[in-house]
From TrEMBL:
This is DUF2619 domain-containing protein. It comes from the Bacteria. It comes from Lysinibacillus telephonicus. Pfam families: DUF2619 (PF10942). Keywords: Membrane, Transmembrane, Transmembrane helix. The chain crosses the membrane at residues 6-30, 42-62, 68-85.
Length: 88
């Protein structure tokens, strides 16, 4: 049987992927570079949010199986990924 944390992670990723595909369709439909950039900017907010939430759900699901130090390391890794994306 699947764990509830895994189900939530999968559903969130399916929703995120559906938003990406919908955004691509809208960009194609509008056929306008400015609107495409606006849509892409909204997606830039969705991606990191989904990453943080799915990581949080996953860590919460295995919290009794891993140490506090490992949880801190995992969240630090996610934070470093996000910081590296912001750097020039």
């Amino acid at each position: 049987m699947l764990e509830s944390a895994l189900i939530y992670m999968v559903l969130l990723r399916i929703l995120s992927g559906s938003l990406e595909i919908t955004a691509a369709g809208l960009m194609f439909k509008f056929n306008d570079l400015e609107k495409a950039l606006a849509i892409n900017s909204l997606l830039a907010l969705v991606g990191p949010t989904v990453l943080i939430i799915t990581t949080g759900i996953g860590i919460a699901g295995i919290s009794e199986k891993i140490s506090y130090l490992k949880m801190v390391c995992l969240f630090s890794g996610v934070l470093l990924i996000l910081l590296s994306l912001k750097m020039k």
